[in-house]
Specification:
By secondary structure, this protein is of the alpha/beta class. It contains ten helices and 13 strands. β3 and β4 form a beta hairpin. The longest helix has 44 residues. It starts with a strand and ends with a strand. The structure holds adenosine-5'-triphosphate and magnesium ion. The site of adenosine-5'-triphosphate has 13 residues, from α1.
Length: 343
């Protein structure tokens, strides 16, 4: 149904599974796990997902089939050759309490947040990331191979050229997104805290806040790391090691943000993401909120619900029966893996 859809059910009944299925169908990836094998129902070798989506001006049907470690995706019954052919057909944002790792977790969580967003907006970005990761893997294999040292240097230089070329494109995409997120997220964070607190997100490229400087010095930075990389047999610098700095009132949120402040930061970033997708695509994405409402205080919860309602964002919210009462929204009951209702 358009608007708010509430999935109610006790713990372990399958609510998260429903959202996970929708997310996978729209992105070709799980929000939770790395490998499709982990998504299979116990003692099954295949899964099949089907969905019909009504957009502002057109209708899209999506299918995703996984069998014996092979994946087939169809858009309007036509098989897609590559993931990038369909990712972004319909945009989606997932928000669950696990997303707090964006603030307190390691840099990979923050890079993932940016990468998932860019991949939905620019289908070619997935191929770019894959190509870059392959180069990093190959350089890493070379560093571990104990070959003739003079040959090692010349081969590393070849891989470094690729790292610079592909890495610069990744960095520029991420910086562009971070800058746009910063403006919207700070505004939302200000509203959430009655303008008492400020939020600042900055992309740190190759250890440097000044991206243009980092990119122009990229070859030198790689050269300076060469001996250390050989010694540690690891690729130590590049966008696969970059981070986003999140500052709350000009202090690192990772160290100082309380639980509630962390939630507000993630909420602001997610709502900013929604807004950016609307600006670019002309429509809000589908919003999947898993167990989020019970984690927010009343003011933030009301802010989120008002934001969703006033913007008419189609949203699926999971909650247990004992939780918050929402005045409006279609209700579905999830029990033992089955859904009923819709009124
Ligand atoms: N691979 C699997 N095959 C079949 N069932 C599974 C598999 N993995 C998990 N389950 C079961 O699926 C159920 C979990 O469903 P899900 O996480 O969607 O529940 P939920 O309604 O979101 O619960 P909660 O309110 O606790 O978050 C559990 O009962 C779990 O034991
Ligand atoms: Mg759940």
């Amino acid at each position: 149904m358009p608007g708010i859809n509430i999935l109610i059910g006790d713990n372990g009944q399958g609510k998260t599974n429903v959202l996970e299925g929708i997310y996978y169908l729209l992105t070709g990836k799980s929000y939770r796990v790395q490998r499709e094998q982990e998504l299979l129902r116990w003692d099954q070798r295949e899964f099949h997902l089907y969905g019909d989506f009504l957009m502002a001006h057109h209708r899209v049907s999506l299918e995703s089939h996984y069998r014996d470690k092979k994946k087939i995706v169809k858009v309007n019954q036509v098989p897609c050759q590559r993931l990038s052919d369909f990712v972004g057909t319909i945009n989606v944002i997932f928000f669950s309490p696990d997303d707090l790792v964006m603030v307190k977790g390691g840099p990979s969580e923050r890079r993932r947040f940016l990468d998932l967003h860019i991949a939905q907006m620019r289908p070619g970005y997935v191929s770019l990331l894959n190509a870059y990761n392959k180069v990093v893997q190959q350089k890493s294999a070379l560093l571990k191979s104990f070959g003739d040292k003079s040959q090692l240097y010349s081969q590393i230089l070849l891989w470094n050229e690729q790292i610079i070329k592909l890495g610069e494109m990744i960095i520029r995409n991420r910086v562009d997104l971070t800058k746009r997120l910063q403006i919207v997220a700070d505004h939302i964070y200000g509203n959430l805290t009655s303008q008492k607190e400020t939020l600042k997100v900055t992309y740190i490229a190759l250890g440097n806040k000044n991206v243009n400087e980092a990119i122009s010095e990229f070859p030198q930075i790689l050269n300076d790391k060469l001996e250390q990389e050989i010694e540690r047999q690891m690729v130590l610098i590049g966008p696969h090691r970059d981070d986003i700095q999140i500052h709350l009132n000009d202090k690192p949120a990772r160290l100082y943000a309380s639980q509630g402040q962390q939630r507000s930061i993630v909420l602001s970033l997610k709502l900013a993401e929604l807004e950016l997708i609307r600006q670019e695509k002309g429509e809000y994405p589908l919003l999947l909120l898993d167990d989020v409402l019970s984690e927010l205080d009343r003011f933030r919860r009301d802010y989120l619900i008002t934001f969703i309602k006033s913007s008419c964002i189609q949203t699926l919210i999971t909650m247990t029966s004992a939780e918050i009462h929402l005045e409006s929204g279609a209700l579905y009951f999830v029990e033992n893996g089955h859904i009923r209702g819709g009124c």
